[in-house]
Design goal:
It holds the Pfam family DUF5753. This is Helix-turn-helix transcriptional regulator. It comes from Streptomyces coacervatus. By secondary structure, the protein is of the alpha/beta class. It has two domains: 97 residues, 434 Repressor (Amino-terminal Domain) (Orthogonal Bundle), CATH 1.10.260.40; 193 residues, Endonuclease, Chain A (2-Layer Sandwich), CATH 3.30.870. The chain has a six-stranded mixed beta sheet with strand order 5-4-3-6-7-8, sandwiched between helices. A hairpin with a 6-residue loop joins strand 6 and strand 7. Helix 1 runs antiparallel to helix 5 and helix 4 runs antiparallel to helix 5. The radius of gyration is 21 Å and the shape is elongated.
Length: 296
């Protein structure tokens, strides 16, 4: 749907989708935001004007799909005359979204659910949506062994909850690319790694997704220094999620998103074909399984 802005320009307005306030704290927050906005007689465009945020971003907050940044909460309170309500409740919503995830990651699970396409590059570890519980626990055990058991289980539960996405009929189209070393070199027990590789093959085949492997014989390639997740949406511009050991960020600046897009396409070009990649995964899984059985 299109609308005219206050400057007389045409803009794309995200389709209206009534939030269910009972689903979660973020949904309650978003439903209250929409109610207060409509009571004030303001459109999305009028409320977001002057905030340096986009219509789609505000619409996603109203639907409980994105977190409210503190600067936007202050802007909304000022525009709606809500006496600091949305700023005060920002922290509560952030905590509700954070359970089992680092605070900087809180928006990503909701973005994955709303995406039309998901494209991932995993140069160092298997992407979260494809992980088994054993692999996830292994990452924590070797990377952060001082993590309290309760926190470990919260993280594992949150990671597995994200994987519920595969069961949806309207799930995003998925295309993943892994470096070969990710499936060859691991401190996990061979049986656990066999289970992990078999799980990837099952997910990719059963969901008609695509996975490619960049072989070790190709040491130089685009996006060599970090993971990237490219997401596209039906009613919002594409964005990229990148992550390091201790932080992550959403990249939505169009020129940067375009550069990630170009580099991801270069990765496709140097990777093995989808058929050859699955064959390699299956062979690696058999090798792990056989060696594990021989060691018993």
């Amino acid at each position: 749907m299109r609308a005219v802005t206050s400057e007389g320009r045409w803009c794309v307005v995200p389709p209206k989708k009534d939030p269910d306030a009972s689903v979660s704290v973020p949904c309650f927050y978003g439903a209250e935001l929409r109610y207060r906005r409509e009571q004030a007689g303001l459109t999305l465009e009028q409320l977001v004007e002057g905030s340096f945020r986009g219509l789609s971003f505000l619409s996603q907050i109203e639907r409980g799909e994105r977190g409210m940044p503190i600067d936007l909460a202050r802007h909304v309170d000022q525009k709606l005359g809500t006496d600091g309500f949305f700023e005060r409740r920002c922290e509560d919503v952030a905590k509700a979204r954070q359970v089992g995830h680092p605070l900087y990651f809180a928006d990503v699970p909701d973005l994955e659910k709303q995406a039309v396409t998901l494209e991932e590059w995993g140069p160092n570890v298997i992407p979260g949506l494809l992980q088994t519980t054993a692999y996830m626990r292994g990452l924590i055990r070797y990377g952060s062994p001082w993590t309290p058991p309760k926190t470990v289980e919260e993280r594992v539960h949150a990671r597995m909850a994200r994987a519920e996405l595969w069961k949806r009929e309207d799930r995003p189209a998925y295309w993943g690319i892994l470096r070969e070393s990710v499936i060859r070199n691991t401190p996990l027990p061979l049986g656990a790694m066999a289970e992990q590789l078999e799980h990837i093959c099952e997910v990719i085949r059963s969901t008609q997704s695509i996975l490619q492997i960049v072989p070790e014989t190709t040491p130089w390639h685009a996006l060599g220094h970090g993971m990237a997740k490219i997401m596209t949406f039906a009613d919002a511009p594409p964005l990229v999620w990148t992550e390091g050991n201790f932080d992550g960020q959403i990249v939505d600046y169009p020129a940067q998103v375009k550069e990630y897009r170009r580099r991801y396409d270069l990765l496709r070009a140097v990777a093995l074909s989808p058929e050859a990649s699955l064959a390699l995964l299956e062979e690696a899984a058999r090798t792990c399984r056989n060696e594990a059985q021989q060691g018993d």
